[in-house]
Amino acid sequence: MAVPSGYVLDGEKGINAFAAGFSPTDTIVSVTRGTLDYLTRDELQGVIGHELSHALNGDTHIKLRLMGVLHGILVIAVVGRIIVRVVGSGSSSNDRESKGDPRLPIVLFGLGLMAIGGIGVLFGRMIKAAVSRQRELLADSASVQFTRNPAGIAGALKKIGGLATGSKIENAHVEEANHLFFGQVFTSMASMLATHPPLAQRIRRLEPQWTGEMTAIDPEQASAAVGGS
Fold it and tell me: Taking 80 as the threshold, does the pLDDT of residue 189 lie above it?
């Protein structure tokens, strides 16, 4: 595959990364500032190997299409909400009480769109989460295949567990792209909607003898290991 372009999310202090693109020839990989500050060279290689796997296996294309489908379903709910707000606010109280109000069917139509869109988005997110969880486990395994070093990516996951901010992303629009990232971007989420398997499950697949201990990180002491030995 072609060498991807690299970017840094400089304002993000959590440990995370993502890859995006429609094919292995137009992929970009981005890491957070926290990833560069806290991870060693081997751990960073494990994360990058994970993201390159997404590109090589076509996951980035699948996930971008999922974003488009979900947005399309969401638009249905948004249109319904606009119809209800505009038509409903334009009718007087007498009109609303009148059985012959011609705007009532339009309002009901808008409510129907809101219901269809809302239910569709919920089930769409559940499907997105289920697909993403499976692809994340595959990418973890592929990273080990690429780097020949399971301790690298496992170490990165342990540091996510030991860092107060974990893999959290602060950007307000991150929910739309949460399934693209290396780690769960929210501190808490219902299991059915979680786009990533639990950290413990991912680590134990890499290190079956793991004792459950995470690697504690002091945010005030950013590691300068990247680019070192």
Answer: no
